[in-house]
Structures are given as C-alpha cells and as structure tokens.
Amino acid sequence: MSTETCGLLSMIEETKETVLKLSSLRENLDAAFVQTVNAPPQITNEPAQPVSMIKLPRIDLPTFWGDTANWFEFWAVFESAIHNQPLSEVQKLTSTSA
Q1: Residues 80, 9: Cα–Cα separation, whole Å
Q2: How much of the chain exceeds pLDDT 90, in percent?
Q3: Residue 15 pLDDT
Q4: What would the pLDDT profile of 44-84 be if each residue is shown by its tens digit?
Q5: What whole-number distance in Å separates Cα of residue 59 and Cα of residue 79?
Q6: Are 92 and 82 in contact (CB under 8 A)?
Q7: In angstroms, rounded to a whole number, what is the distance separating the alpha carbons of residues 64 and 75?
Q8: Per-residue model confidence (pLDDT) at position 7
Q9: What whole-number distance in Å separates Cα of residue 33 and Cα of residue 35?
Q10: pTM strictly above 0.70
C-alpha cells in the first residue's frame, strides 16, 4: 500500500471519528434544547427597580473615534457614568445624546 493511500485512509478514519463526535454533541444539544423549552418558566419575586421620572442632565462623554489605543479610557468613563447606573436603556440613551 502506498504512503498516499495510507494517509488517505487515516484521514478518512479521522473524519469518521469526528463525524461521530459531532453527532453525539448534536444529540446532547438537542436534548438540552428540549429540556429548556419544556422547563416551566421561573418566576422571581424580586421587586422591580424604581424608575426615576426626573429630568437627567446631559452627560458630556468623550467621543470614541475608533482608535483602539483610546478604547479602554473611553470605556472606563462610559461604564462609570452610564453603563453601571441604575437607569433604563432609554434614560441612558437620552442622557448621552444631544
């Protein structure tokens, strides 16, 4: 048997093993999906966060122009001023837009 034939047979065998592994993983995913879909909804009794109805001041954030060297500085300011605040998404947007 030639070296090329041995190499080809080896590749075919590896491919079969990979297909079997993928098939097994697919079955596991399908089973997990069915469990998720059939699970009863979880109801939490956490109190809703109060929504502030006051007019928020406009926050002047530095503009991120796409330079990756400035990303971490921009994100640190944005995260502390906007992202981590207990505001609705709309409030966050309107406090940053002109």
Answers
A1: 58
A2: 22
A3: 94
A4: 766 665 655 667 677 778 888 989 898 999 889 888 888 88
A5: 13
A6: yes
A7: 9
A8: 86
A9: 5
A10: no
Half-sphere exposure of 18 (CA within 13 A, CB side): 6
- Token couple for 87: 């505001």
Task: Please calculate the CA angle 50-56-57 and round it to the nearest 5 degrees.
Answer: 160
**Burial class (CB within 10 angstroms; exposed 0-12, middle 13-18, buried 19+) of 66:** exposed
CA distance 28 to 49: 38
- Which tokens belong to 75? 């994100």
pLDDT > 70: what percent of the chain? 85
Tokens of 71: 């990303």
Task: At 19, list the tokens.
Answer: 């297909």
Instruction: Count helices and strands (H / E) in the chain.
Output: 3, 0
Query: What is the residue whose two structure tokens read 């001023």?
Result: 81
